[in-house]
Every structure is written in C-alpha cells, then in structure tokens.
Amino acid sequence: MKPFTADIISTVEFNHTGELLATGDKGGRVVIFQREQEVCTEEQAPAVVLGSGLQVLKFNLPSFQSKNQVHRRGEYNVYSTFQSHEPEFDYLKSLEIEEKINKIRWLPQQNAAYFLLSTNDKTVKLWKVSERDKRPEGYNLKDEEGRLRDPATITTLRVPVLRPMDLMVEATPRRVFANAHTYHINSISVNSDYETYMSADDLRINLWNFEITNQSFNIVDIKPANMEELTEVITAAEFHPHHCNTFVYSSSKGTIRLCDMRASALCDRHTKFFEEPEDPSNRSFFSEIISSISDVKFSHSGRYIMTRDYLTVKVWDLNMENRPIETYQVHDYLRSKLCSLYENDCIFDKFECVWNGSDSVIMTGSYNNFFRMFDRNTKRDVTLEASRENSKPRAILKPRKVCVGGKRRKDEISVDSLDFSKKILHTAWHPSENIIAVAATNNLYIFQDKVN
C-alpha cells in the first residue's frame, strides 16, 4: 500500500544533545521525538505508529562501530507534533508554494525551551517548543471558567497559586523569515555565533539575524544578467562548525566553494575552490548530471568537508583543493543502469550524507531502502537495509550484497531486482552515540549499536 504523499518524510535532524529527533514531511508537519531516560525492557513494543502514517522502528546495527561507547537504552517516543507550514499561492507569479519541509536545523539549548528552524521552498520559521506542567489558579478578576467577574462582587483578595497539571508541550512560531527568495530554498545553516543563519536557494545565499525578520543580507549571488547564460546552480550550503566567518556551498557542476565573509561583503569571489578533474575515460552523456553535488557537510572537527554526488561520497581536506582525499563508491553497480534511471527521473534524486560523532564513519542512502556506511580508519564498508520484512525487533541487521550479472548467491540481491521507488534520501546520526535515524518514505527507522 502506497503512503499518502503528505506522510513522506523529507528531512531528519537530531538536536545538539541527541535527546530530541525532529522529522519534517511533505505535508508541512514537524514531528519531534524525545529519548526516554529509563531502561527499556525486552517486552516493550519496538514501534510507535502515529496517526499521520509515520512509523518509528528500532533495530540493532551490526558490530560495525567502535565498542567503547557508552550506551543507554532509552527509546525515542513522540514528544510533539505541529503543523509548521501550510500550502500557499503566489498570486503575482501564479505559483503554488508547497508546504513540504525541506530542512530542519536545531539551535543549541539555552534554557528549558527548545528552538528549531524549519523551511519550505520560500519561508523559514523559528519555532519555540516548550513544556507546561503547572497552571495558575485563584484569579481575582476571573472565575474558574476564565470569564471576567463583576468587580462590584469581589469582596476578598486571593493569592494565585500554581497547581500541577498534565504535561503539555507547546510549539509556537517566534519568527517568520519570508519574502527573501525568488527560487526554492534548498539549505539552511545556523552559524556558530548563534546570532545569524543563512538560507540558500538555486542562485542566491542570504544571511539573516535571528532578531530581524524583515531584511536579510545577500552574501552570494550567482544569477547571470542574462538567464540564458546560466551554467550552474547552488545545490547545498553550510557554515563552518567553529569559524563564524566561513561557509561552503556546492554546485550542480560538482564544485565546492569555500567563502570568507571577512574578505568582502558579497562573497562572489571564493577563497578556495574544490574540484576533481574528470577522468576522460569515464565521460558520458550522464557525466554532468551524476557529478552534481546533492549534499555538503563539514566534519565536526571543521577540518574536512564531505560531499555526495549521485554515485559517490567524497571527503575533502580543507588544505587540498585539487582532489578529494577519500572517495567511496555508494552504488557503482548502477553505472550500467544510468539510462533507465534517467528515464524514470531517479538520476535527479538528492541523497544526503552524514558523519558520526567522531568523524570516523560516514553514512549515506541508496535504493531498495539500502543505506551505506564507510569506516574511514579500517576502510571497511557495509550495506544495510531499512525494512520491516527483513528485521525483527532487537534483531541484528544483516549486511546486504548486490550482485551484477553472473551467478547470484543465496544472500545476494540482483541489481535488476532493486526497487528504485524505495530510496533512503534522508539520514541523521546522533552527535555522540552510535544511534542513527533513517527515513524510508513514511517510515522512520532508528538503529543503535547492539546492546548486550
């Protein structure tokens, strides 16, 4: 049974502590999961099924990660659900603006409340998520139902008191940053100064102050005077994790530009330019399409950047611009299938990539609900499948293998039988533990290291 389009998950993001996990979907909803602190028993249900069609399932990863991590057995349960964006219509351009959540970014927690940014194609919103477990009682000018009382009937003065109540989680929009993008927003990134953030669309990147909603500062503009001369678009952008003046953005030509906001107000001139020369022997009709970068991520250390194109994940050292220091083949067996992938538009899918907390392992998605992990130290890699059919609760995920032609072993799957409608585009990794979240259409899978 196909899921409703509105239920398809479009972004996944852990907060800075990993205690909360937010998902956004094509229906404009944000669902936040909170990690329970108590130890879970084996009998507890592994799945939480929500009315929106979103399902959360928890399974164990194979022993691919390091063994010296501290593990807690808390499950992620629904904490808050709210409608972030609604469908709109631009009457000047006769364009429908989808409610789909393109990206969610958390702000570091400063007090009891949580703050996050969410964006659709045109509008970024800052949301405050807070708890309330007490309510005031004993008003002087209101009765218990909240109606105003006649002052003439008030003969005594009461001192209001706070009474316990059932926990309520409230999500309130604190800021709405609108009307600054002509094209579709593909990235938002919070700066390390926590005072500013940037939003990027196909041709421009804007810098915002969290306190100012009615104006932004344009820091990159690659729109040519004549649109017929357009040769590339911006595909992703991110701030450096420690230096508030530095950011990178990637392009559809497979290049990455590092910019320094101290150099000039408009960062049209890059500080560094990362590009790998193309191998002429691999040149084909599809070369330009598959070299387009769909995601760019700084490592937590700030020393490296990781990029994802259609077939590979590359790791670049900030001090070496001419080629990546590591290249990982995600699904090289699809090279022979590019023609059919072009015909069914899958070749334009935008896969994301993530680092683990120590920058030693990277993860990205593929087709058939497969996702790939690459250990940078041991050079080992594994293909895993996010599937209810092949995973019992608490079972260890078995590595999967794809065979290309020839004899197929019993545990292998043929490249011709891969399901291209099942794809893992969005993944997230807990900032300090080996817990990952994987979005497969309307299912959210949460995997953790095997706990003895």
TrEMBL record:
Database matches in PROSITE patterns: PR55_1, PR55_2
Database matches in InterPro entries: PP2A_PR55, PP2A_PR55_CS, WD40/YVTN_repeat-like_dom_sf, WD40_repeat_dom_sf, WD40_rpt
Protein name, UniProt field: Serine/threonine-protein phosphatase 2A 55 kDa regulatory subunit B
In the record, biological process GO terms are: regulation of chromosome segregation
Q: Does the keyword S-adenosyl-L-methionine feature in the UniProt annotation?
A: no
Which GO cellular component term is one of those annotated? protein phosphatase type 2A complex
One GO MF term: enzyme-substrate adaptor activity
Q: What does the UniProt keyword field contain? A: Repeat, WD repeat
By sequence similarity, the record places it as follows: Belongs to the phosphatase 2A regulatory subunit B family.
List the SUPFAM superfamilies: WD40 repeat-like
Coiled-coil features, chain-numbered ranges? none
Give the gene that encodes this protein: Ppp2r2b
Q: Which domain of life is it from?
A: Eukaryota
Q: Which organism is it from?
A: Mus caroli (Ryukyu mouse)
